[in-house]
Amino acid sequence: MKAKRNRYGGCYRRGLEAAQVCVGEENWVDSRTIYIGQKEPPPGTEAFIQQRFPDNRIVSSKYTFWNFIPKNMFEQFRRVANFYFLIIFLVQLIIDTPTSPITSGLPLFFVITVTAIKQGYEDWLRHKADNSVNQCPVHVVQHGKVVRKQSRKLRVGDVVFVKENETFPCDLILLSTSRDEGICYVTTASLDGESSHKTYFAVQDTKAYNTEQEVDSIHATIECEQPQPDLYKFVGRINIYMDNEPVARPLGSENLLLRGATLKNTEYIYAVAIYTGMETKMALNYQSKTQKRSAVEKSMNAYLVVYLFILISKAFVNTVLKYVWQADPNRDEPWYNDRTESERQRHIVIRAFTDFLAFMVLFNYIIPVSMYVTVEMQKFLGSYFIMWDDEMFDEELGERAVVNTSDLNEELGQVEYVFTDKTGTLTENNMEFIECCVDGHVYVPHVILNGQVMPGAGMDMIDTSPGPEAREHEELFFRALCLCHTVQVKEEETVDGIKHGIHQGKLGFTYLRLKDSHMEILNREDEIERFELLEVLTFDSVRRRMSVIVRSSSGQLYLFCKGADSSIFPRVISGKVEQEGLRTLCVAYRLLSPEQYQEVCHLLSGAKLALQDRDRRLAEAYDLIEKDLILLGATAVEDRLQEKAADTIESLHKAGMKVWVLTGDKMETAAATCYASKLFHRNTQILELTTKRTEEQSLHDVLFDLSRTVLRQHGGMTRDTFSGLSGDCTDYGLIIDGATLSAVMRPPQEDSNSGNYKEIFLEICRNCSAVLCCRMAPLQKAQIVKLIKASKEHPITLAIGDGANDVSMILEAHVGVGIMGKEGRQAVRNSDYAIPKFKHLKKMLLVHGHYYYIRISELVQYFFYKNVCFIFPQFLYQFFCGFSQQPLYDTAYLTLYNISFTSLPILLYSLIEQHINMDILKKDPSLYRDIAKNSLLRWPIFIYWTILGVYDAIVMFFGAYFLFDNTTFTSNGQMFGNWTFGTLVFTVLVFTVTFKLALDTHYWTWINHFVIWGSLIFFVVFSLLWGGIIWPFLNYQRMYYVFMQMLSSGPAWLSIILLITAGLLPDVLKKVIWRALWPTTTERIQMYAGFGYVPTLLDNADKLYKGHLSEFTPLASLQSKAGSQRRGSGGQRNAPNPRRSEPFSKKTMFTRWQRTPDYCTFTPLLRFADGARNSRQGYAQGGQTSV
Fold first, then answer.
1. Which of 203, 236, 282, 171 lies closest to 22 in space, CA to CA?
2. Active site located where (predicted)?
């Protein structure tokens, strides 16, 4: 498709520059031409080139009946683990291996089948949904009549007839409506969640065509940009042929009706299809986002590489030792196992490589293929606990939490930085009117209720009565507020009704309605004034302002402009307002002469008719028009903090997270919100890195001054040491604005000695308890998140917001959370998780995130542990069978170990385990620190689990080996064979790894008992059936009666019990000793929970956090009653014990009541429970000081 040049209308005659780039689609260089009603243009006007467009079928499914198997197999075998097992299976088929191909093939088949069934079922549901949409009826105008056809048969260029409350079948350009003014009302709730009615406009020259015959007579073409996903941008133009001469009109987003939106309060419309099927904006927005990977998944892959290296090492060592063993000819070819001639002639390298592959097959079960499918099921099923949580249900909105990406559940337990928007996220986004300032005079209403000025209340100045000039400015100010907007009054609200509701009209001026392109307002004398609306210069987040051009009844032309103070002040030439720490909206105006208005019209028409780069040209035109303004005044509103927002931020701080507020508001307003939300405290020393300061000093000097300030206080220690402990040392809060941030982020110049400011900025931020970034553009929010993500610590980040301007940072952060606020659903649609209110973030992180991380960490470590226990005896067995690749276990045991015998208990554990009660997790946020920085999947813990697995394997193998030395092992004196030996080892293995999981379980329910003990019973029953029946489909049955014979031996029972005990004992002893000497906070609470002390402690903790107790009250005195009920002397517990989580064990307190500064420490809250019986004297004599 080629870019078209056109010789018609306005800027068409100047032609298009095909190389220019369209806004929103950087690589777009061509347009599409649509012939309305599939009609050719008049002869001689332009060449008719019929372009091919897709039909209107929506395809959200991934597979078809024919490509499901090959496509699904390809996707599954792209996974390293699946591909590895496929190779092992093929090796078993090709060469003579010690184990049956079934042992590798069946588990692989199980994993592949389960995944394929799950994905196939999900795709079948998508097919059903697609068919229901594609087959729904639509009405199309053909040959002057309305005909009915299926939605999938709709084509680009068809004129569609849509009735009220019907959904638009594709993206349409509005031609005409049932309303005389050519407007229609639409709700886009299914697209962006906004339920309010939006107004769309028909093309000016076609809005009078209201019948099928009239619409069918339209002769026009539409040129527009190629499809792109931005819901709020559209660039196009329509050529309407009248007497073979085209009239060009611009088309924008106000003319575009999107698929999925619903027609409201309008009887019918006629519109032409321009984007169909998978090219509609709704379909383009369904494309998957960039895949995010959690820290746990990265750890899993690293562990997998280690185990793969161990596997190769085992196979290599065994291959070498085999040929060392066979160096003796008698061992190489014993009399009972002569080689064939072909075997003797094979080259030794080929024989060695074949043996290496055979050993790889023998030991391949150390790689847990079923772990991946278990992790997938755990994440998928676990995500429902967030959606089912009644505490995260908001009755006001009627919404629950939503999980869009279950792959990141455990990442919720690893968050170190929280980046939050302010308006609508921390606040309610409900602006309450406080006051207004006109020409330097402040006006305050008499009575305000819920932010609304009560009828008849009146507005009076605080200081003096206005003079004549001030009175004129006052009236102009209120007129500007009534006219400078795009509000649509509900049609049922008549002018008489509005006037009746206003009573005597003492509020000044009231906007009534827009009728026939005239805006009607009611003045103080109850007279209706009419202003012709000539132009609307729309609002956008970059300009941060909007304007209207109106003509009064006297013929005067006004440009009224309103917007943020930062965007209005640079454009005014006179006027003043008083500024406070409130959210302000500045209002300005400019009188236009007829000549100036003509120039404005010329600028705007040229920009609006541009097909390419229209947004840039409009912005340039607006910039030229909105200048030389006279400032009239400003309104001040206040946005209330959301319920429990301050408590949530305080809890996040105590959990060790750093909270940054990223907002587009001005500094004073944002700082006030930060104080109200407890992000900043009274004793927080504010550091400013703003434009105002950098104007006085160079950026280089300011940064180094701030760096010296924070580092001098902390003595080189980063703030992470003290994070979340308020009052322990000087708190620093940083405030930075968008302009200064741009300078900080700017790459260093080659000829400059300033260096890179990013590292200095990061160092300052690390030592601040909170950071406020104000005057931020949406892209800058994402840059901040990216900067912190890329820092040397590589912290886990979370971004939370409610509007479209937060989408960029939500997508950039490791975890993106959307708020179901009043700014639509753009943030929710692009997020990983969505919650109704900011307060729900507390439970999502501190409870659900904590649980998810604990559960999946145990799952991953346990899977590797049980596979080491499983396969290491096989490795040891080769030293006793001449490295002959003889398997230790039966084929059935090899196949079912990971699929059946040990899979369900760990899956259930990973779904419902609660190592600490959730009420405790909510009351004591500091417990979140115990799992910070992926602490449960670090290499030392991984090595411990691996060593534990090796130890258990050695105990199982050599314990059974030495017990087998007794020749009278059975009652009849028979000796056990190698299959009995392997069965004994396998029995001890299954019971040991299952009991190990049972010992790690803290939260017992009937389901746990059923699954854990049921798995063991299933193993025993299966073994009895497998070895107790002659199976007709088996050529040989080496396990026949083996299990029964083993159980008939008393020594076998004794050895099973002894070996299980010996295998579990070291882990139990280690836990007991560690908990006694170096307990973590989590382990302390688990111990106290056993004695029933935790609720009392946490109640006092809660009182301390809320200020009901003095922080300097010895908490031991509060525990006297609880302490008197404890058993035993408690002498050991009173001693101060070192702890594993040492950085968090003591708080540093800086005291100033002494002559010289003294740094002392006091025991954390839970430690006081140990010393409940101690007197004050006892504390004074102890190793730590109680303050």
1. 236
2. 421
Average pLDDT, the chain: 78
> Residue 628 sits in a domain of what CATH number?
3.40.1110
Q: Is 583 annotated as a binding residue?
A: yes
Specify burial of residue 223 (Cβ count, 10 A radius: 0-12, 13-18, 19+): buried
CATH number at residue 767: 3.40.50.1000
pLDDT attached to residue 336? 61
Task: Kindly state the tokens that stand for 1066.
Answer: 């070291």
Ligand-binding site membership of 4 (annotated): no
Instruction: Determine whether the annotation assigns residue 422 to a binding site.
Output: yes
How far apart are the C-alpha atoms of 33 and 48, rounded to whole Å?
10
Distance CA 693, CA 699 (A): 8
Q: Same structural domain for residues 615 and 694? A: no
Residues 464 and 421 in one domain: no
Is residue 189, in this structure, part of any structural domain at all? yes
Q: Are residues 94 and 200 in the same domain?
A: no
Q: Is 407 annotated as a binding residue?
A: no
DSSP 900: I
The reply to whether 542 and 678 lie within a common domain is: no
Neighbours of 396 (CB within 10 A): 8
Q: Which residues sit opposite 660 in a β-bridge?
A: 419, 771
328 is in an annotated binding site: no
Q: How many CA atoms lie within 13 A of 1174 on its CB side?
A: 25
Is 394 annotated as a binding-site member? no
CA dihedral 1017, 1018, 1022, 1025 (to 10 degrees): 60
Pair 480, 528 in one domain: yes
The domain tally of the chain equals 5
Catalytic residues: 421
Whole domain around residue 626: which residue ranges? 433-450+459-490+504-638
pLDDT in tens, 61-95: 888 888 899 998 988 887 777 888 888 888 888 87
Write a three-state SS string for 1124-1166: HCCCCCCHHHHCCCCCCCHHHCCEEEEECCCCCCEEEEECCHH
Q: For residue 198, is it within any domain? A: yes
- Any idea how long the chain is? 1187
Select from 1098, 1066, 1046, 927 the least CA-distant residue to 992: 1066
Please name which of 1135, 1157, 1139, 1160 lies closest in space to residue 1149, comparing C-alpha atoms.
Answer: 1160
- Kindly state the DSSP code that residue 153 receives in the 8-state scheme: G
Give the H or E element holding residue 178.
none
Assess whether 120 and 200 both reside in one domain.
no
3-state secondary structure of 410: helix
Write the pLDDT tens digit of every residue in 111-129: 888 888 888 887 888 788 8
pTM of the shown model:
0.72
215: domain CATH number is: 2.70.150.10
Q: Are residues 204 and 133 in the same domain?
A: no
3-state helix, strand and coil shares in percent for the chain, rounded to the nearest 5: 45, 20, 35
CA distances (Å), origin 494, targets 177, 519, 524, 981: 22, 14, 19, 93
Q: Tell me the backbone φ, ψ of residue 1117, rounded to 5 degrees.
A: -65, -25
Q: Which residue has the tokens 């010296």?
A: 708
How does pLDDT run across 537-594, given as a tens digit for each residue? 888 767 788 999 999 988 899 999 998 887 888 888 887 776 665 677 889 999 989 8
Class of residue 408 by CB neighbours under 10 A (exposed 0-12, middle 13-18, buried 19+): buried
- Pairing type for strands 245-251 and 236-242 reads antiparallel
Secondary structure of 908-954 in HEC code, one letter for each residue: HHHHHCCCCCHHHHHHCHHHHHHHHHHHHHCHHHHHHHHHHHHHHHH
The answer to whether 243 is a known ligand-binding residue is no
In the listed set 137, 172, 187, which residue is the last one of a domain according to the structure? 137
Neighbours of 1157 (CB within 10 A): 8
H-type alpha helices, 738-814: 738-745, 757-766, 778-789, 807-812
CA 401, chain centre distance (Å):
12
